[in-house]
Amino acid sequence: xxxxxxxxxxxxxxxxxxxxxxxxxxxxxxxxxxxxxxxxxxxxxxxxxxxxxxxxxxxxxxxxxxxxxxxxxxxxxxxxxxxxxxxxxxxxxxxxxxxxxxxxxxxxxxxxxxxxxxxxxxxxxxxxxxxxxxxxxxxxxxxxxxxxxxxxxxxxxxxxxxxxxxxxxxxxxxxxxxxxxxxxxxxxxxxxxxxxxxxxxxxxxxxxxxxxxxxxxxxxxxxxxxxxxxxxxxxxxxxxxxxxxxxxxxxxxxxxxxxxxxxxxxxxxxx
Length: 271
Hints:
With about 270 residues, the chain is α+β, with helices and mostly antiparallel strands. Helices cover about 30% and strands about 30% of the residues. Strands 1-4-6-5 form a four-stranded mixed beta sheet. It has a four-stranded antiparallel beta sheet with strand order 2-3-7-8. The protein has a four-stranded antiparallel beta sheet with strand order 10-11-9-12, with helices on one face. A hairpin with a 4-residue loop joins β7 and β8 (about 155).
């Protein structure tokens, strides 16, 4: 059984305050983007769950992969869950602000629930997903959502970018999320992202802000340059997704990749 986990972009991201549990309260809009990995499970007669991967190299040990962690998380509560062979073909860049690993984990939960008829409700799946990561619950819903709390308090919101071209550009720089948070001074938002997102897209440039851009752009000017180039090429809105380093642009017309022709950047156009 095979599924195709998609990535996401953040439309605005504001860090509001730091909580006593060490996490941060934030607000953002998660928007699903149809650029996908491939995730397959088949029964394993060897009685042990195995993980293999192709495509982009996944750093770390197989035991630390979120797909494996999702399996063992459910196995604790469903000991009858049989051993499986897990294969992940990775195309979504990692450490890129696109939520690829979180998507894989959430899709794994859904896949196991469906394949082995665990009869878990959406609420139960959301609770399991949160144990794997703050933005994993979003991928259980996988529709445009206004998110608060750690990112797990989700409210579906009417945002539709299907009439536009969305361009993803990743310059190959890995941004450590912990470092990014440590370089932000949390502050209450002057205007809610939920309000801004309902305005015409052309107004987003001056109001829909990602707080991570300031420290990341200071440390890595080439990421700032990607955003500036997208605007120079006609984007009606451009921003970094998550804590980076992927930058996306929203275009009404075709996007010209020539300004990035001599750079070894990952570029993907959606729609």
